[in-house]
Write a structure and sequence with these properties.
Elements: H1 6-26, H2 35-48, E1 53-54, H3 66-78, E2 82-86, E3 94-98, H4 100-113
Antiparallel strand pairs: 1-3, 2-3
Helix pairs in contact: 1-2, 1-4
């Protein structure tokens, strides 16, 4: 079976890598912050890679304070783009995932950007 979103995943990975390289070259973590975009990129990549992301680890690479990330996750949740869910085995651990609306938004945005590389 062919994954019709393979191009979108490749684009998301390329954008995320470019953003991290830019931040590294600048020498200032979080200087070029777009926390919502970074969160959505990371969650899309995780979803397509069948990886779970804990709330505490979302966008660590973005270099912004955890309070900022938590505010953005709350905003994205209010907008219906992400949701948080408790780990069934460890109630202290919570995961964050894209909703179907968040997934559709990312496919639309990544499609509009087009292939990279």
């Amino acid at each position: 079976m062919v994954d019709i979103e393979a191009g979108a995943l490749q684009t998301a990975k390329a954008i995320y890598a470019i953003r991290r390289r830019r931040d590294s070259a600048a020498g200032f973590r979080g200087l070029f912050g777009e926390p919502a975009w970074d969160i959505l990129l990371e969650l899309y990549i995780a979803q397509k890679s069948r990886t779970e992301l804990q709330v505490s680890s979302v966008c660590i690479e973005a270099g912004v304070p955890s309070t900022t990330i938590l505010r953005w996750i709350a905003r994205l949740e209010r907008d219906g783009l992400v949701y948080r869910e408790a780990d069934r085995g460890d109630a202290r651990r919570r995961y964050v995932r894209l909703t179907s609306e968040g997934h559709a938004l990312m496919v639309r945005l990544l499609g509009a950007i087009g292939p990279m590389g």
